[in-house]
Specification:
The chain is α/β, with parallel strands linked by helices. The chain has helices spanning 21-24, 30-43, 103-119, 136-145, 160-166, 182-187, 195-205, and strands spanning 2-7, 13-19, 123-126, 151-155, 172-176, 190-194. The protein has 7 helices and 6 strands, in the order E-E-H-H-H-E-H-E-H-E-H-E-H. The chain has a 6-stranded mixed β-sheet with strand order 2-1-3-6-4-5, with helices on both faces. A hairpin with a 5-residue loop joins strand 1 and strand 2 (13-19).
Length: 206
């Protein structure tokens, strides 16, 4: 079992915690992590891009000039792609980019992502995270105290004071244990978990 220090909001060590090897000590599967990241980015794509082909643009109903004798290259329609205002060759059309991953693959990928953060000493456990008011400055100071850069703060229960205080910090993001994903974990410089969040993750994903 990996043993990680537990710190308070002032950044002082107040104890240690044993992390479950079933979640934070698995063999890292880079392929599944890659698949999970690609899936999330693909699922976020709108796929609404559209351009008109030569059959959809307006105009060009007749031949612009006769076939021979003008000195111009022969042309059949002003809707052809080489004309200004003509159609687009192989124009993009609305499509669905999303694809599915098995539940077991998603879990394995998340476990691999969390394990990689533990191995890189980029996972911080904080005993509790409570703010008595919505104050970005206070939340920024907490992250500075615990040396969490580009932080993903994971909580067990929704706390509007913490969420709203973090929202305006450019390199910080909050998440609940039920909504964490591989992309956010891998994209974060530091993953900050409350003790309650660690317990919940070990309970759900064990």
């Amino acid at each position: 079992m990996a043993k990680v220090s537990v710190v308070n909001m002032e950044g002082k060590e107040v104890g240690t915690i044993d992390l479950s090897d079933a979640i934070f000590g698995v063999e890292i599967n880079e392929h599944l992590v890659h698949l999970a990241v690609v899936q999330q980015l693909a699922n976020n794509r709108q796929g609404t891009q559209k351009a008109k082909t030569r059959s959809e643009v307006s105009g060009g109903g007749r031949k612009p000039w006769r076939q021979k004798g003008t000195g111009h290259a022969r042309q059949g329609s002003t809707r052809s792609p080489q004309w200004t205002g003509g159609g687009v060759v192989f124009a993009p059309v609305p499509r669905e980019y999303s694809f599915k991953l098995n539940k077991k693959e998603k879990r394995a990928a998340l476990k691999s992502a969390l394990t990689s953060k533990v191995n890189d000493n980029k996972l911080i456990v904080i005993d509790e995270l409570k703010l008595d008011e919505i104050k970005t400055k206070k939340m920024a100071q907490v992250l500075k105290n615990i040396n969490a850069k580009k932080a993903l703060v994971v909580m067990n229960e929704k706390d509007d004071n913490v969420i709203l205080s973090t929202r305006n910090i450019a390199d910080a993001k909050t998440a609940l244990t039920g909504s964490i994903n591989v992309y956010d974990v891998m994209n974060a410089g530091t993953v900050v978990l409350t003790k309650d969040a660690v317990a919940k993750i070990e309970e759900v994903y064990a």
